[in-house]
Structure formats: C-alpha cells, structure tokens
Amino acid sequence: QVQLVESGGGSVQAGGSLRLSCTASGRTFNIYAMAWFRQAPGKEREFVTAISWNGGVTDYAESVKGRFTISRENAKNTVYLQMNGLKPEDTAVYYCAAGAWVKITTTPSYWGQGTQVTVSS
For the chain, what is the mean pLDDT? Predict the structure, then answer.
C-alpha cells in the first residue's frame, strides 16, 4: 500500500501563499495519479486538484483555478500544492490522495492524514 504524509499547512493572511507537500512511501508511487482534497468544518470533502501519474494532465476545481498549482516530482515521491492568492474560504484541512486517474477525483485509493490551512481576513 501507499503511505501519504502531508506537510506545509499553517496560517496566512488573505492574499498570501502556502506550499503544501505530500510525500509517499512505496515503490509504486509513480504509477498513481495524485490529488488534493479539502474539508472545511461542517462541510463535505471537496475535490481541489489532481495530476496524472506522469504529470502530463491536471484538473482543477473552478474555485481554485488560476490560484492553485499542483505538481509532482516522482524522483522524490512527492506531490505539491502551491496556493497563491489565498482567501478565507480556502480555510480547510487539506488531504493528499492517490489512485487511478479514472477515479482520483471521486474515490481515491489512498489518503493522507491531512494538514490544516487557515486563511484570515
């Protein structure tokens, strides 16, 4: 199985930036699509962005398009989420996920533990 560990969360003022990292263990990391989800208190978990196994295809929720960028560095077994122009509504626990591309946006196979992102106004 794949183990995912997120880092880089924290608190930032509106308009600021954060960079999240998710490092995977396991020698099969490179074959998985990767994604980021988020969940705010009292809300359903929400898809944020995904990237294919080779980094060639990405997908973004409309709410973050143009502000967030997903990337991966397979040699380091790591996926990143660069978040710019943060808004208070971006406040949530952010989760890293891995799985097949066809289901990565809905039902990933593996999840990280989450990292808190708080954006103040």
Answer: 95
